[in-house]
Amino acid sequence: MGLLVLGNRFVRDLESNGALAVRVPLEGGFEGRYQRRMRATGYESLHLSARGLGDLSAYLRDVHGVRPPHLGKKSNGQAAVGDRYFVPPVLDYRLERMAPGMKGIVLWLIEGHILSSQELAYLVALCEADTRIKVVVELGGERVFKWFPLKDSVQSA
């Protein structure tokens, strides 16, 4: 019964703040329950790792180029190894193709402790610019599932 009450409070806090920082138990399991609660209230969930994202603004909101691993093969006539492929923006693509009746999208970033304070500030500004985007960043471990506004962690960093 506790998750029903806490899950509703988590949803309300995320909707009012836009971006939350969470500390989760290291054995896992709790974040899936809260993601399921967000999907039940009308949000699409996007679960990503913060490692290897590169430039957040380019990856989330712009068309960006990626190079697959070259596996030792070299392409002719180029300084860089391998071809570059262009990928649509992750958030904008999903927002354009969101099902009718959905409230928005929740970007859940694991391993968020590697993000700089500038990147965390960008995520807060992203939620303020578009109210359909909500962000949850896992900043570390704790004995119990805790959350607080992400802008508080940016001010302290």
Automatic annotation (TrEMBL):
<comment type="subunit">
    <text>NDH-1 can be composed of about 15 different subunits; different subcomplexes with different compositions have been identified which probably have different functions.</text>
</comment>
<keyword id="KW-0520">NAD</keyword>
<keyword id="KW-0874">Quinone</keyword>
<comment type="function">
    <text>NDH-1 shuttles electrons from an unknown electron donor, via FMN and iron-sulfur (Fe-S) centers, to quinones in the respiratory and/or the photosynthetic chain. The immediate electron acceptor for the enzyme in this species is believed to be plastoquinone. Couples the redox reaction to proton translocation, and thus conserves the redox energy in a proton gradient. Cyanobacterial NDH-1 also plays a role in inorganic carbon-concentration.</text>
</comment>
<dbReference type="InterPro" id="IPR020874">
    <property type="entry name" value="NAD(P)H-quinone_OxRdtase_su_N"/>
</dbReference>
<keyword id="KW-0521">NADP</keyword>
<comment type="similarity">
    <text>Belongs to the complex I NdhN subunit family.</text>
</comment>
<dbReference type="Pfam" id="PF11909">
    <property type="entry name" value="NdhN"/>
</dbReference>
<keyword id="KW-0618">Plastoquinone</keyword>
<keyword id="KW-0472">Membrane</keyword>
<keyword id="KW-1278">Translocase</keyword>
<keyword id="KW-0793">Thylakoid</keyword>
<protein>
    <recommendedName>
        <fullName>NAD(P)H-quinone oxidoreductase subunit N</fullName>
        <ecNumber>7.1.1.-</ecNumber>
    </recommendedName>
</protein>
<keyword id="KW-0813">Transport</keyword>
